[in-house]
Amino acid sequence: MPCSRRNFLKTGLAAGILAGTGRLPLRAARGTATDWVTLGKSGVKVTRLAFGTGTYSGRVQRDLGQDEFTRQVRYAYDRGIRFFETSETYSEMHKMLGVALKGIPRDSYRLMSKVTTREGVDPQAKIDELRKLANTDYFDVMLMHYQHVGTWPTDTVRWQDGILEAKSKHAIIGHGASVHGLPALRRFPGNKWLEIAMIRMNHRGAHMDAEDYNTGGPGNVSEVVTHMKQVHTEGMGVISMKLVGEGSFTTREDRQASMKFAFNNAGVDSVTLGFKNTAEIDEAIENLNLALA
User: Fold this and answer.
1) Does the pLDDT value for residue 6 go beyond 50?
2) Are 229 and 267 in contact (CB under 8 A)?
3) What CA–CA distance (Å, rounded) separates 45 from 26?
4) For residue 274, which of 87, 121, 11 has the smallest C-alpha distance?
5) Where are the alpha helices (DSSP H) in the chain?
6) With contact defined as beta carbons under 8 Å apart, do 12 and 232 qualify?
7) Could you tell me the pTM of the whole model?
8) Which secondary-structure segment (H or E) carries 270?
9) Does the pLDDT at position 147 exceed 50?
10) Region 142-154 average pLDDT
11) Distance of CA 34 to CAs 7, 58, 173, 174, Å?
């Protein structure tokens, strides 16, 4: 695969955390939602705003049907969103996304997938299956999905090795893991295998990490932010999810506040949101532009 398709552009980290303030400095460039940013030491460049396909495990996007889903993906692409994410657990979404992106130059967008780290599953076969479903030669980012116990670094060694093998074959460019629960998140800082961390983040702690990974109550925002800043300073790229509290933020003010918190307090690099119509795409772009301004 030609190097130009990988976009392995190495950049330094943004300015460090201001001592004693608990806040990150504003970006000098006053960026926008559709700027390209580098996910830390992975070298992968993505747009700050990503199009997610996992609202209620993809049900919302699947219910649109292929034609309407394709229209939403093309609209987002035309608005400048060039980062699309899905997961093995979002039934049918690899295939639907592959159809929606068909014909668009592959090097003009980035594609992220997530695999569940099941026992008895061959990592190479699973990654090849997902590539075929998504109609792509490679994934720009592959994450180990839903790491939710403190022993995940040792439990998933076989999958870690499998992902690195796929990288050696140019089927994957950047790699990392998504996390659910504080016991698992506490093992992210200092982890040498991780290049990219996907961490839940919003200002209210809705559907965020707590001691119980499956808690029905609020997460520990302060501790999550602390770990997020730690992994960022270690050179990991940080992608955030649950920015609208899994749909629980019904006012635009809350959605704007969540976006501001993620970028100005927690220091994420990119955020993913699931969309079901063009109005939601337009609002998310505007909310992130306001957060960055």
Assistant:
1) no
2) yes
3) 20
4) 87
5) 3-6, 59-62, 65-78, 93-101, 123-134, 152-155, 157-168, 182-185, 221-233, 252-261, 278-292
6) no
7) 0.88
8) strand 270-274
9) yes
10) 97
11) 17, 23, 21, 20
